[in-house]
Amino acid sequence: MPNIESAIKRVRTSEAANAKNSSQVSSMRSAVKKFEQAVEAGADNVDALYKDAAKAIDMAESKGLIHKNKASRDKSRLSKKIAK
């Protein structure tokens, strides 16, 4: 545990940021999985789930949680699944 006041504060802020970032990445993955399951099942709301998943990917990219190439690759794969 750090002794210096600024280091103590940095630990606190890092933990808060880590929790927020982890939550956002997790929700992005959940949105993608929900879309993929709907495509496999042949559900009616596939378009809405695609929009939600693409938005979640874009949000994670804009916040620097995932690389822009990974975001593009993921969205491309989702659009291929919806085209089938």
- Average predicted confidence as pLDDT: 95
Based on secondary structure, the structural category is: mainly alpha
Q: Number of helical segments? A: 3
Helix content: over 70%
- Taken in chain order, the helices and strands follow as HHH
Distance between the termini: 54 Å
Low-pLDDT runs: none
- Residues in β-strands, percent: under 5%
What does the radius of gyration come to?
17 Å
Strand tally, please? 0
- What coarse outline follows from CA principal-axis ratios? elongated
Largest sheet: none
List keywords for this structure.
84 residues; 3 helices
Q: What's this model, at a glance?
A:
The protein is built from three helices and no strands.
Can you walk through the features of this model?
The chain is mainly α and 84 residues long. It contains 3 helices and no strands. Helix 1 runs antiparallel to helix 2 and helix 2 runs antiparallel to helix 3. The longest helix is centred in the N-terminal third of the chain and has 37 residues. It starts with a helix and ends with a helix.
